[in-house]
Amino acid sequence: MRAVVFDGITSEATGFPKENLLDNNPDTAWRPTSTATQLIELDFGSGVTVLPDVCFLFVHNYSEVGTANATPQYSDDGSSWSAGGAPTAIGSLTEPIKVITITESSAHRYWGLALSSLTGTLPDISMLHFCVERDVGQGNDWPENDQDVSFNITIDTNGGRVFKIAKNRNTFKRFTRQFTIPIEANYTALRNAVQDCRVDRWPLLYYDASSYILARIDDASFTKNEISYQIYQPTITFAELPYIESGESY
After folding, report:
1. CA–CA separation, 201 vs 39, rounded Å?
2. 3-state SS of 95-109?
3. Burial annotation 149-174 (CB, 10 A radius, 16+ → b, else e)
4. Which H helix or E strand runs over 113?
């Protein structure tokens, strides 16, 4: 986990400041002011040795964006920028999460995201993270203990049926999922993931079948002996935080 500060941004609309990109809240967002090419510049500080593998975006109004391309950028001086990956379309998405592969193979102090070819409705971006992939070799998962953490309207109907509808415009439903970690797992990577993503730190992305899921590690602990000697097959629980659109029932 590394502290990140803004080094610059092309524009920001009133009420949609750049700080919303890093507050880990999908219900706040940054928005540009025009269709001109936009560059979000982040300073990871001196002595950077970790190379990000992907750029993670959470596009708040994902289904409304006209057209837009997002391209990872990197720089060593904060002024001369180069593409760190291929342009990726983020308009008319079917879900708010977009993960863009970074192809640059060297570490750099400055990283950013260029938005180009903007037309129609401008994107509201709630989260921007440059992420490191950690393959811990997780096995099967089991959903447990669904828990609502949003404001709902409860509608009772004839026959005892109960419906819950999200009252606030955008919200979460919390799911607890448990993964079995096999003996051959990379325990150092697992420990790092736990430290980076526990509860109120940076969100964790895990790949589930065909899509990326935004999650946080709910609770897990590993002793030095367990990591060093792999003396048992532990389990780890994630709190999954999917995005619920206004008016959707669940």
Report:
1. 25
2. CCEEEEECCCCCCCC
3. eeebeeeeeeeeeeeeebeeebbbbb
4. strand 110-119
Residues with Cβ within 8 Å of 233's Cβ and at least 6 positions away in sequence, in order, are: 180, 181, 182, 183
Where is 190: in which H helix or E strand? helix 187-197
Contact 35, 121 (CB under 8 A): no
> Rounded to whole angstroms, what are the CA distances from 220 to 119, 184, 194, 239?
45, 18, 7, 11
Q: Which amino acid is at 210?
A: S
pLDDT tens, position by position, 183-201? 666 767 777 777 777 655 6
Strand partners, 236: 179
Domains and their CATH numbers in the chain? 5-131 (2.60.120.260), 141-244 (no CATH)
Q: Which residue has the tokens 């992907």?
A: 54
> CA 87, CA 106: separation in Å to the nearest integer?
19
Task: Give the range with max mean pLDDT: 59-68, 128-137, 138-147, 233-242.
Answer: 59-68
Helix (H) or strand (E) holding 69: strand 67-75
CB 125 within 8 A of CB 22: no
**Contact assessment for residue 112 and residue 75, using Cβ atoms and an 8 Å cutoff:** yes
DSSP letters spanning 121-187: SPP-EEEEEEE---------EEEEEEE--S-EEEEE-GGG-EEEEE-SSSEE-EEEEEEEPPTTS-H
